[in-house]
Amino acid sequence: MLRQNVHAFVSSALAGDLVDQAFGDRRLFKLELTRFPGSLAEAVVRYGSEASPPLLILEAVAPPERLIAELEALADVCVGGTNLIMLGSVNDVGLYRALLRRGVADYLVIPTDPVRLIEAVLDLYRDPEKQVEGQIVAFIGARGGCGSSTVAANVAWGMARHNVGDVVLLDLDLAFGGADLAFNQEIGHGIQAVLADPERIDEQFLGRFTTKYGDKLHLLPGPGTLETEAPITGTALETTLAALRQQARFIVLDLPRHWTDWVRHTLHTADQVVVTAQPDLLSVRNGRNLIDFLAARRRLDKPPFLVLNRVGAAKRGEVGVKEFAETIGLAPTVVIQEDLGTFAQATAAGRMVEEISARARSVEAFQALVSRICGSSGKPAPSAKPGGDWLKRLIAKK
């Protein structure tokens, strides 16, 4: 989706709240919304003297018999290619069909779920000729040493084994990341080279610039050195992820705990987030802060997946699973019991836990998390025809 302006003409508080919630969501962050009071009539006046934006959202307040005439007047003043989504309180299938026949992209009866408006907007930007866009899954730890990178690696490997398509694991801790060691692989080009020139990502990218592990898992580890580290910029990462969405079914991000602008932005815009914690007071405090941050910025999304790791590792002072969930305000998606021997063997061999021992206690937890993530990825709604057709159709009718 390109960065574009969106104008919304709404006269009721109900429609205004709907538009604000939808365009405050992470999925539409590239679209810049400007709200105006009024409806179709006011839009006709405005675009008589200025160019209309690529996307218009209009609240229909006129009776149905007058609405079509106002729509024709709007077509006279809008530039070609303007997409139109309409909101209204009249729940009438005849009106709905009449509007769609005239090229309106969608007509939503309010009140409605903001996600419905989000999907209507996204439908305008989906290319029916392209495959489903990949999902971005961001992993972050509530504290150092809680095993977030290990969870990310085992889940990425499990996704590839789950036959969901190509999976790319990006280790975004450039200085101290260990994805190359976790899989016992040479670094190759690595994520740093890709971030330096994200435009190089093309249809042959996965074969040329990633390190392959198995049939479907592709690794982009960090350089693992302090001497060559270059800072990650939000723009470069955003460009990289947008390109990778076209190449892989899932993009797994192993985020560092550095609380930078690009980390915050990535957590805000990722399709799914996994928070890994361990049952101690530091994880309770930091995990609660992370969950509150995500809840404030991802209001229309489900809560993050919570992995409670290394349960049973501390002989004293460990926070119980039930108490942890009550205090942090979120029940763990999976609980991983401490299994130091198996994890140590996997680390030493550069293998995933299930490759070392299919009967390890953590294997079932990893498999459950893979199923939850893949099952939550969702399917896109059918792509709508470009709403800009409404101009041509109305002009032809006139």
Please describe what this structure looks like.
The chain is of the alpha/beta class. It folds into two domains: 4-126 and 381-397, Rossmann fold (3-Layer(aba) Sandwich); 135-375, P-loop containing nucleotide triphosphate hydrolases (Rossmann fold, 3-Layer(aba) Sandwich), CATH 3.40.50.300. Helices cover 42% and strands 18% of the residues. It contains 17 helices and 13 strands. The protein has helices at residues 13-23, 40-46, 64-77, 93-101, 114-125, 148-161, 179-182, 190-196, 205-209, 234-245, 261-269, 281-297, 321-328, 340-349, 353-356, 361-375, 389-397; strands at 4-10, 31-37, 55-60, 83-88, 106-109, 135-141, 167-171, 211-213, 217-220, 250-254, 272-277, 305-311, 334-337. It has an eight-stranded mixed β-sheet with strand order 8-9-7-10-6-11-12-13, with helices on both faces. Strand 4 (83-88), helix 4 and strand 5 form a beta-alpha-beta unit. The longest helix has 17 residues, at 281-297. It is elongated, with a radius of gyration of 24 Å. 42% of the residues are buried.
